[in-house]
Amino acid sequence: MMMMIRFLTKESCSILYRTLSSSASSASLSNTKSALKTIIAATDTDNDNNHQPLMDTHGRRHDYLRISLTERCNLRCLYCMPEEGIQLQPKSNLMNNDEIYRMAKLFVERFGIRKIRFTGGEPLIRSDIIDIIENISELKSNGLEKISLTTNGILFGRYSSRLRQAGLDSVNISLDTLNPDQFQMITRRNGLAKVIKSIETALSEGYDSVKINFVPIQGLNDDEIEDFIELTKDSNLEIRFIEYMPFDGNHWRSDKMLSFEQLIKRIESKFNINRLPPKSINDTAILYQVEHYIGTIGFINSMTNPFCNGCNRIRLTADGNLKVCLFDSKELSLKNAIRNGMNDNEIDKIIRLAVQRKKKQHSGALKLANSSNRPMILIDQRKSISTSSSISGNFSHIDSNDGHQVKMVNVGEKFETKRIAQARSRIYIGQNVMKKIEQNQIGKGNVLTIAKIAGIMATKSTSNLIPLCHQCPLDYVDIKFQFNYQDEEIIIDSICQTNWKTGIEMEALIACTIAALTIYDMCKALNKSMIIRECYLLHKSGGKSGDYHHSSH
Ligand code: SAM
Ligand code: SF4
User: Ligand 2: which residues within 6 Å by Cβ?
Assistant: First the structure.
């Protein structure tokens, strides 16, 4: 089986990504299932892969699963989330408790996953959090060794003892300042006292480990680094310094990031520290301890020294997409696989295929800063960015594996929003013909009425004419004409409206173009020197890229 997987073509794999990432509309469901079955059948020489570790082609065993439970959060940390929050998916798009359990069970029993971490958004916002942990802890009798949680600590104090009883083993609490005003500034909310209380509670309730996640940012909280290290003097805490990472829209700048090298120099100049041996080859943190202090300090150097070599992690986003690398924008929808009725054997195979495609290493820091990726809150949570958005710059129609392949963008998981586009074209026609049109003296019929009908009809055919355009349900199309005698032209304005996942600019442009060509066709016997002068987008609104107005208007 493993050999067969290796010989699977790129095409087969990308079909898997595309089919599974698309929404499970009932019409597409049977096609999706049969496409998958064909691929799975092609690999199904035996069942020996069941209960084998989850290996990639670089010899890395994956035994650590991070599951995001939600995209929502009760804080708005500057480096993570925009002030206004993010566009949330309907709850039905997120994995429910049963789906989380089914996935986790499969990962533990078939792939030997030993550690599961729940994260988010803020995982404690989910009202079924205790049930989720309770269910998952049943898997401890099947090989699961550890259940962990990453939280911002606002609600942890309230749930701590119930979480511990439910089976939670360890907790990471994120905290970037000990100053209440600064807390308000960084998280755009109040709540420092609650977070500190949560840390104290966690320390008193016998968790295996309590770690503090701290993202040092130059000019923001770097003056508190020493204060955080002092917390390890009398408490069995691990302070984890996480290098500030770039995500879509978090205003990352290289000069704001404090690298491990900068941090360690500074810390060594103030404390007597000793490096500790790694706890395992998969350790993401480089560990140190200040002499005679109880706790430890760790460094997560994702930017300057990515821990790709020992990477044993895979992630499930809150909407049920498998992400084999934090910085790989390709995702595979396991939630759709479940909802499409795939059985565990089938899901087992597609997961193995996905992990087989994991790259040896993610791009360097600078490339990451310039590439597009879900914000952390959406990685360890959700995305409504297209599930297979390209990693080759901004050209989402070009397949990242081969710049020459054609690829229709998968919009299966995008939100429907109200979108309006207006376009304009001009046709130089000459004064004489203009007058004849106005007076309805063209022998073939009413030119503008026919041009309008032609434009509207053509708009409906946009996806047939433009190869990579999606078929878009039109709510409204209109075309209007103005006579501009000064320039001897007719100005054609179109407007299109939809509630849909993709833009509607092409529809508006097609409407103008075909209306102009129809005028040309109806008048060509009277004037052969007509010119269709231009065709351009006047205005668009809605969608991820926001509003646009042509500079001339
Ligand atoms: N809400 C929970 C919390 O804050 O702990 C869990 C989710 S949060 C996204 C998980 C961790 O990612 C937090 O420790 C946070 O500090 C870290 N994080 C978020 N954005 C980051 C960024 N741009 N660079 C480095 N770490 C980041
Ligand atoms: Fe919320 Fe955690 Fe992101 Fe802060 S870091 S906004 S707490 S998800």
Answer: 73, 75-77, 80-81, 120-122, 152, 174, 377
Residue 347 main-chain phi, psi, to 5 deg:
-65, -40
pLDDT at 176: 98
pLDDT of residue 402: 47
What number does the ligand 1 atom closest to the CA of 243 have?
Answer: 25
Ligand 1 atom closest to the Cα of residue 173 is 5
Catalytic residue among 131, 344, 475, 521: 521
pLDDT at residue 513, as a whole number = 96
Decide if 54-388 and 417-549 have a common fold. Answer: no
Active site residue 521: yes
Top mutation candidate among 70, 125, 174, 252 for ligand 2, by most atoms within 8 Å of CB: 174
Q: What is the pLDDT of residue 363?
A: 60
Output the ligand 1 site: residues, CB below 6 A: 73, 79-80, 119-120, 122, 150-152, 174, 213, 215, 242, 244-245, 247, 250, 376-377, 380
For residues 372 and 389, what is the distance between their CA atoms, to the nearest angstrom? 9
Tokens of 249: 């829209």
Cα-to-centroid distance, 218 and ligand 1 (Å): 17
Q: Give the domain 417-549 fold.
A: Alpha-Beta Plaits (3.30.70)
Q: Which pLDDT score, from 0 to 100, does residue 90 have?
A: 87
DSSP-assigned states of every residue in 241-269: EE-----TTS---GGGBPPHHHHHHHHHH
In sequence order, the 6+-apart residues with CB closer than 8 A to the CB of 33 are 340, 341, 342
* Residue ranges of E strands in 307-440: 313-316, 321-323, 332-333, 417-428
Nearest CA to ligand 1 atom 23: 245
Choose the CATH number for 54-388 among 3.40.640.10, 3.20.20.80, 3.20.20.70, 3.40.50.2300.
Answer: 3.20.20.70
pLDDT along the chain (553 residues), means of 10: 38 46 43 53 52 85 95 94 80 95 97 96 97 98 97 98 98 98 94 97 97 96 98 98 84 88 97 92 89 97 80 92 82 91 93 86 60 56 32 40 65 80 94 92 92 96 91 93 87 92 93 97 93 90 79 62
Ligand 1 site-directed mutation target among 74, 171, 175, 215, most atoms within 8 Å of CB: 215
Domain boundaries, the chain: 2-50, 54-388, 417-549
Question: What is d(CA 419, CA 541) in angstroms, rounded to the nearest whole number?
Answer: 6
pLDDT attached to residue 282: 76
Rounded CA Rg of the chain: 28
Q: Ligand 2, residue 375: give the atom nearest the CA.
A: 3
Ligand nearest to the CA of 79: 1
* Confidence at residue 284, expressed as pLDDT on a 0 to 100 scale: 84
User: Tokens at residue 538, please?
Assistant: 């006047």
Q: How far is the CA of 182 from the centre of ligand 2 (A)?
A: 15
508: left (phi over 0), alpha (psi -120 to 50) or beta: alpha
